[in-house]
Design goal:
By secondary structure, the chain is α/β, with parallel strands linked by helices. 36% of the residues lie in helices and 20% in strands. The protein has a domain of 201 residues: Alpha/Beta hydrolase fold, catalytic domain (Rossmann fold, 3-Layer(aba) Sandwich), CATH 3.40.50. The strands form two sheets. Strands 1-2-4-3-5-6-9-10 form an eight-stranded mixed beta sheet, sandwiched between helices.
Length: 290
């Protein structure tokens, strides 16, 4: 099993420059690149099991999106939006590829939306796309839940208290072992200078959520459908059986539009499958290697 290397790339926003950290797995000279992008409050470490498993075939690149984990926070929280994340990923892909080989993409939730938009562009570098429990229709209640969760600037007196919170709010991930729950917590908790523990992201990520109006949400949804319909690369859509962010009706509509993705539903899981288990990893490997 290969070990990850920690690197970073300098990106820009309208407010200035920021560094985006990423983990790199596999042979650094391998021209086959897989980019894995996490959900809204998660981090690159979420893909450790998947990346280690696929590093025999790919150089796997797992970024901490701006404002999360090891990456710098943005100077203006209003730029915590999809166009900024897409721009950062274009910079990252330019750093880790040479020529026109392109990349394969695995995106969980927010990471899937970034991949969806990037794959919709003419001359997109994405050659194969995995959308993990995300689509162009975002349930307003689920968005409100996510926004409320992000905005809570919680402090925990001990790691154990923080880990219990992460486990409670992540119950929709489905069954995991005690060691797996511990890693899911350790990946997103950080100890402050005062000894307290908190979640490893900028609470200002919630700013664009709180500014979202019904009219803007409708416009965003229309734009996401347009992006999805423009995708031409082979696409796999994964849905957690009990997901409240990607309904079965939306998933089925997606199979009839755009890239007409293959749909796989994972039983006993909500939003979103973690792809730390061998059976889930096999789903990604089989599709990406096809």
């Amino acid at each position: 099993m290969s070990e990850a290397r920690l690197k970073s790339v300098q990106c820009s926003s309208p407010a200035g420059l920021h560094r985006m950290a990423y983990k790199e797995w596999g042979d650094p000279g391998n021209p086959r690149v897989l980019v894995c992008v996490h959900g809204v409050t998660r981090v690159a470490d979420d893909f450790d099991a998947l990346a280690a498993s696929l590093s025999d075939r790919y150089r796997v690149i797992c970024p901490d999106v701006a404002g999360r984990g090891r990456s710098q926070r943005l100077r203006d929280p209003q730029h915590y939006v999809l166009p900024q994340y897409v721009a950062d990923m274009v910079t990252l892909i330019a750093r880790v590829t040479a020529g026109d080989e392109g990349v394969h993409w695995f995106g969980t939730s927010m990471g899937g939306l970034v991949g969806m938009i990037l794959a919709s562009f003419a001359d997109s570098p994405i050659r194969r796309l995995v959308l993990n429990d995300i689509g162009p229709v975002l349930d307003p209640a689920a968005l409100a839940r996510i926004g409320d969760y992000i905005a809570q600037d919680l402090r925990f007196s001990s790691y154990e208290a923080g880990a219990a919170f992460v486990r409670e709010v992540s119950a929709s991930f489905g069954p995991h072992s005690e060691n797996e729950w511990d890693k899911l917590a350790r990946d997103v908790l950080v100890r402050r200078d005062d000894g307290q523990w908190t979640r490893h992201y900028d609470p200002a990520l919630a700013r664009p959520f709180t500014a979202l109006t019904p009219e803007r949400a409708g416009q965003d949804q229309a734009a996401l459908w347009a992006a999805f319909d423009a995708i031409r690369c082979p696409t796999l859509l994964v849905r957690g059986e009990h997901s409240d962010l990607l309904s079965r009706a939306t998933a089925e509509e997606m199979t009839r539009r755009g890239p007409r993705p293959q749909l796989v539903e994972i039983a006993g899981v909500g939003h979103a499958p973690t792809f730390v288990h061998p059976d889930q990893i096999a789903i990604a490997r089989d599709f990406l290697a096809a």
